[in-house]
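Is this the right way to post structure tokens for a design question? Let me know if I should format differently. Anyway, here goes:
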């Protein structure tokens, strides 16, 4: 496919000359500079402009990364830039007209995050329906009443439910109801509570100390938690206050009901409350096949931050208190933290659409299935090493650095997540099977040839 679209430069007509290695070079990445030359009067001046990385592009089987180090605008009579300033080497390799350097390449964010997908049709349809007419504000509407009823029914118990805009606020404000400023909050070292909330739990608790713990497969154990709790118990050290678990975990693994029961028993033995970050809780339910109650209150969880956004909804999470005493005055915390929506029905309607139709669990199961499909295709490939066995909708693998650079240059977006070579590949409710297959094919082609 062509590397650039033809056209004309803005302003005076000019010519863009690629400088660097010849495009026939088969190296994985070609670092190129360029000059812009324009027709005009003779001039001895050359204006330098600050350079920056502009884009990545692909040309047939060559992966080409253009690093714009410096733009040289030379006004010359013949309009040809023969060499870089202060060099004697002739550089021109190709020339063309273009409005700007635009690669003919499609950017694909499918595996970058489960946040990159759009809204699920069930959530969007319900939101559109809720948009008709007028309704009471601040959660006094029928949509919110029904949403609260459905969430309570999902967990088969009386519970207090509050809707929040995003996961960071859900975790932080929930923990503020569990802990004082002098408490410790124990979590895994890769948990969002510690590494992805910009200190929000510490802020909303007034200074509670986050204690990150290292454990295999991103899953805490009772022995590890107990050792951390008992490390210091004197008044000179923050008091043990809460245990935060993530389900499913940040590495795509899942706690079983038995594992949660054991962790909650240890926590309660030492006076800790238990909060669960359930941004991908639906994926955990789909993976285990057990009722949501068995993964939460029946196992000893006090409060769940139930994710909606990563499962096809927009700007809505739910904080679910199974220990209702802990929810005392929580409505005031929601308001004070800027999380009380005036037009709450638009968030609530999405929960109604997803839960009444069964899409909440069905979409999570699809995301998990796509992750299994991806993992199965990657497993036999040389150079691909699994960091953890995938159980939910994420695949975490080590990949060769050169392979990753090729995939990024082709427009595939995914993130380095663990160490120097550990990458996260997320699937969502909307991940197509053929996109999984195309990505695997691209990765296979980009692997070093033995």
């Amino acid at each position: 496919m062509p590397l650039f679209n033809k056209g004309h430069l803005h302003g005076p007509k000019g010519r863009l000359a690629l400088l660097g290695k010849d495009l026939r070079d088969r190296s994985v990445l070609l670092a190129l500079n360029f000059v812009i030359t324009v027709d005009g009067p003779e001039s001895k001046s050359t204006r330098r402009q600050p350079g920056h990385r502009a884009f990545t592009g692909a040309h047939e089987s060559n992966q080409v990364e253009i690093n714009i180090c410096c733009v040289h605008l030379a006004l010359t009579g013949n309009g040809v830039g023969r060499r870089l300033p202060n060099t004697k080497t002739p550089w021109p390799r190709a020339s063309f007209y273009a409005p700007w350097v635009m690669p003919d390449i499609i950017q694909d964010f499918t595996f970058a995050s489960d946040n990159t997908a759009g809204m699920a049709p069930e959530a969007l349809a319900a939101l559109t329906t809720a948009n008709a007419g007028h309704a009471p504000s601040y959660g006094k509407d029928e949509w919110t009443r029904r949403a609260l009823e459905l969430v309570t029914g999902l967990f088969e118990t009386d519970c207090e439910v509050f809707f929040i805009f995003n996961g960071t606020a859900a975790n932080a404000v929930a923990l503020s109801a569990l802990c004082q400023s002098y408490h410790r909050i124990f979590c895994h070292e890769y948990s969002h509570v510690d590494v992805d909330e910009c200190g929000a739990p510490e802020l909303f608790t007034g200074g509670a100390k986050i204690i990150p713990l290292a454990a295999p497969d991103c899953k805490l154990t009772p022995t590890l938690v107990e050792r951390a709790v008992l490390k210091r118990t004197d008044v000179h050290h923050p008091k043990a206050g809460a245990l935060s678990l993530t389900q499913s975990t940040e590495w795509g693994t899942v706690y079983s009901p038995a594992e949660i029961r054991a962790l909650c028993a240890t926590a309660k033995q030492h006076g800790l409350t238990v909060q669960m970050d359930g941004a991908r809780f639906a994926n955990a339910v789909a993976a285990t096949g057990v009722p949501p109650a068995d993964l939460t209150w029946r196992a000893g969880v006090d409060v769940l931050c139930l994710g909606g956004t990563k499962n096809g909804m927009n700007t809505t999470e739910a904080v679910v208190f199974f220990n209702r005493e802990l929810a005392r005055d929580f409505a005031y915390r929601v308001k004070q933290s800027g999380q009380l929506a005036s037009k709450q029905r638009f968030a609530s309607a999405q929960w109604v659409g997803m839960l009444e139709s069964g899409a909440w669990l069905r979409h999570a199961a699809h995301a998990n299935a796509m992750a299994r499909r991806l993992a199965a295709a990657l497993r036999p490939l040389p150079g691909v090493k699994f960091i953890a066995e995938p159980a939910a909708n994420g695949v975490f693998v080590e990949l060769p650095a050169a392979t990753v650079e090729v995939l990024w240059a082709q427009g595939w977006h995914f993130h380095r997540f663990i160490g120097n070579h550990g990458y996260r590949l997320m699937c969502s409710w909307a991940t197509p099977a053929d996109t999984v297959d195309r990505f695997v094919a691209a990765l296979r082609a980009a692997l070093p040839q033995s």
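Format looks fine. Someone answered above. Worth noting: Residues 359-378 form the longest helix (20 residues). The first strand starts at residue 14 and ends at 19.
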